[in-house]
Specification:
Layout: E1 15-17, E2 21-22, E3 24-25, E4 28-30, E5 43-49, E6 55-59, H1 61-66
Antiparallel strand pairs: 1-5, 2-5, 3-4, 5-6
Length: about 80
């Protein structure tokens, strides 16, 4: 995983990371389309700065590995 500290907004080091969270799908928006499997959506971590409230999303290693071969993503 990439370096997440300090917070890019306020420079705080009081950051918290969630457990893996589903990226959605089904009746919810799919925030990482094409990066999961047919039966499992991709996952990501949330990182929250407890000082300023900035929340960032980081795709799991499995999702980032799948992005290069996915037809639903294009390189910019």
């Amino acid at each position: 995983m990439i370096t997440i500290s300090p917070c890019p907004n306020c420079r705080s080091t009081d950051l918290y990371r969630s457990k893996l969270v589903s990226a959605g799908g089904g009746h919810a928006p799919n925030y990482l389309p094409g990066l999961g499997s047919m039966w499992r959506t991709a996952k990501f971590y949330l990182v929250l700065c407890s000082d300023c409230g900035l929340t960032r999303f980081f795709a799991s290693d499995e999702a980032t590995a799948a992005v290069r071969s996915s037809k639903k993503w294009e390189r910019v």
